[in-house]
Amino acid sequence: MTRWQPPNARRWVLVILAVACMAPTPGDVGGCGQSIEDLDAQVFFEARREADCDACRQCGLSTRRCDAACDGEGEDSFPERCFPLVHDGEVCLRALRHSNCDEYAAFVSDVAPTVPTECDFCPADEAP
Fold it and tell me: What is the mean pLDDT of residues 56-67?
């Protein structure tokens, strides 16, 4: 035997659930209250080299990029007219840290390295 509930109580529960489901999820609205700041290239590339070196060691990868990262060498600046934000750098580093060995092997390949979409801050202009 089911318990009887007044019809209005069910309606209110459904209305409240519908409203709650329409709200944006955290992260869907941007930087979660972060102020807009340009990404410091030196800080980012140092963290990127550290992430690359750690992944190369853990995955047993040996490429020129791995060697350079572990030696503290490599990129130090963004391309001209490229101004990523701090939040962009955080998202990129998080994506790198969560990549598996096969993905990382593609990122540090000597032949045809790929770039995680989260780290493609300034895609090349398609205009001539």
Answer: 96
